[in-house]
Amino acid sequence: MNLKARLTLSFVLLAVLLAGTISCVDLAGEINEQFAATLERAENLRTLASDLVGLSLNRQLSKPLGEAVRDREVSTVLRDTMLASHAIVEIAVLSPENEILADSIPDEIGKFLLPYDDFRPVVTDNGWYGKWRVLRAKKYYQLQQPLGPRNGPPILFVRVVVAPALIKASILPRLEENASVALFSVLGAALVTMLVSAVAFRPLSRLRRQIESMTSGENPSEAAADAKAATDDLSVISSRVAQLGLQLRGAQFDVSDLRGNLGRLLRDLEDAVFLFNREGRLVFASGTMKFIGLDAAALTGKTIAGVFPPETLLGQVIAQAAAAGLAIGRRRVAAGPGAASSAIPSALLSVDPLTAPGGGPSGVLIRLHDPEAQRKLGRQLQTADRLAALSRVSGGVAHEVKNPLNAILLHVEVARAKLAHGDTALEPQMDIISSEILRLDRVVKTFLDFTRPVELNLANVPLDEFVRDLVDLARPQADASRIRVVDERKAEGVEVRIDRDLLKQAVLNIVVNAIEAMPAGGELRLESSASGDTAEIRVSDTGPGIPPDLRDKIFRLYFTTKQKGSGIGLAMAFRIVQLHDGTIDFTSEPGKGTAFFIRLPIAA
Q1: Is there a contact between 242 and 220 (Cβ–Cβ < 8 Å)?
Q2: Per-residue model confidence as pLDDT tens digits over 263-278
Q3: Taking Cα atoms as reference points, which of 272, 251, 252, 253 lies closest to residue 262?
Q4: Beta pairing partners, 144
Q5: In 3-state terms, what secondary structure has residue 479?
Q6: Would you tell me how many other CB atoms lie within 10 Å of the CB of residue 195?
Q7: Which CATH number does the domain housing residue 574 bear?
Q8: Closest CA to 77 of 158, 191, 172, 173
Q9: Strand partners for 597
Q10: What percent of the chain has pLDDT over 90?
Q11: Which residues form the domain of 496?
């Protein structure tokens, strides 16, 4: 659906919404008005009937109460009064036992009339929707007036019975009128909207024709001349598009410079790109030619078979894909007739058929990528990660070494000053210097142990089984600290190649930190999952979180915020994960907790 049709439909729906809303508001007002009028008439009739009964009793004081009320004149007046309102179905004079003594329906005299719900709350406490439901319920309501001595119990009751369902007959004509108005409003809005959109979107149609002329190669100068006098926004844009088409038509590009720059870029990326036209002739070749051992300049004009010999596996795959118009995405193929006969044993091949604007074939784009270059880049990134980790560790060691060295230097100066004054009582200074040397020795030994090459005993281990072992080890300490352990494993059948004991030590360091971060209890969650070629172990807690100013320091050796902490646990965990070609990261939110993510490659 184009923009014009969507906007037209939107305006029509808006008109329908407005007409419907107005009709509903009008209908609600009509319902409220009819109910209020019915209530007013019922109250007037109740008052009138009460006065009539009072006059009849005063006129016949010598007769018994029941006989005086049963006067035929009273029933006749009640009947005539009831007929004045279509929603009033009965007016009755009742004894305290609900026996009918006089009634607008004479046949009901002597019977009993059970009480109904009060009609006043229906009118005053309900909105229009509640009143609409009352109209559909076909239920009776009443207004009642007790009669009797001023300070005594009632001796008679005047009851006016109301049938709200009869009000609907007065509302239906108004509802039909509203429906007719709404229908005509919708039709009128649709007609006006289509006329307005036809005029308003005329510049947009002109803009579309100009863009089509640019893409088809036609001369846009005539359209540009038509748009020069336009002042509205769409017409101005149309004029700019036409001018842009003229500029693009008149612009001249140096194809040789573009080809040279693209070639240098592709050589830097270790890729080879070959573009063949519709006839299968090479029109562009750039990048590294080590895959075929030929010079790019000597290939122009050659066929696909001339560039990629059909006796090679690479040539066969390319010829089949080009003939069938099939796309190939990064498929590993031997580069030469045999793996040993080529400087590049294999290449990652991508074949993309090209189509013309009309839908027919226009050529083939072939790309070759050296997988060894990608692996080399991966190894360089791993080396960079390990060097960065070593830099962080060295920063922590430098901090720990500097403190004892400063203390030793300070007390050497104190000892020198004492000797200069002939004071030979140097035992306190020697004790401090000796303890700081021992402390320095421990720091250096820890660093040597930390950086010493570790021999990994690698084996394929099911990830879910590994996480289950971690949960079993963590549960006793967590239970003692009133911490609930949640175990969520979602990596069934996934294996990782790890040193089980060493990685278990690394993850348990994180688990222990999480438990110690929740001294008042909380929730410890251990999860396993897998996505693509990466497995993940997640350890999260509901502790206080890590302050933002400390987050870039937590993996440093000897850095700790605990009074009795060594600052080795997280640094050791970081190093062990690095040794497994994995990554470790975390997220933390103050007051809500911390989550550590350990990601490892899935075993082949």
Answers
A1: yes
A2: 555 555 567 788 888 8
A3: 272
A4: 159
A5: helix
A6: 10
A7: 3.30.565.10
A8: 158
A9: 538, 585
A10: 11
A11: 459-601
Helix residue ranges, H only, 251-294: 255-268
Residues 271 and 399 in one domain: no
Rank 47-51, 101-105, 401-405, 482-486 by mean pLDDT and report only the highest.
482-486
The CA-atom distances, in angstroms, between 568 and each of 438, 464, 556, 564 are 18, 27, 8, 12
10, 47: one domain: yes
Asked if 30 and 163 sit in the same domain, the reply is yes
Cα angle for residues 503, 504, 506 (degrees, 5° grid)? 60
Q: Any idea what DSSP says for residue 301?
A: T
CA atoms within 13 A on the CB side of 149: 3
**Listed residue (504, 513, 505, 494) closest to 566, CA to CA:** 513
Mark whether 276 and 424 lie in a shared domain.
Answer: no
Q: Is the pLDDT of residue 190 over 70?
A: no
**Which tens digits make up the pLDDT trace of 193-229?**
767 766 766 666 666 666 666 555 555 444 444 444 4
Residue type, 270: E
- Which range is least confidently modeled, 214-218, 304-308, 519-523, 553-557? 214-218
Identify the three-state secondary structure at position 350: strand
Query: Per-residue pLDDT for 598 more than 90?
Result: yes
Token digits of residue 315:
């040539």
447: three-class secondary structure by DSSP: helix
**pLDDT at residue 465, as a whole number:** 93
322 and 263, same structural domain?
A: yes
Q: For the chain, what is the total number of helices (H) and then of strands (E)?
A: 17, 17
Whether 524 and 484 have beta carbons less than 8 Å apart is answered as yes
DSSP sequence for 178-235:
HHHHHHHHHHHHHHHHHHHHHHHTHHHHHHHHHHHHHHHT---HHHHHHHTT--SHHH
Q: Which amino acid is at 141?
A: Y
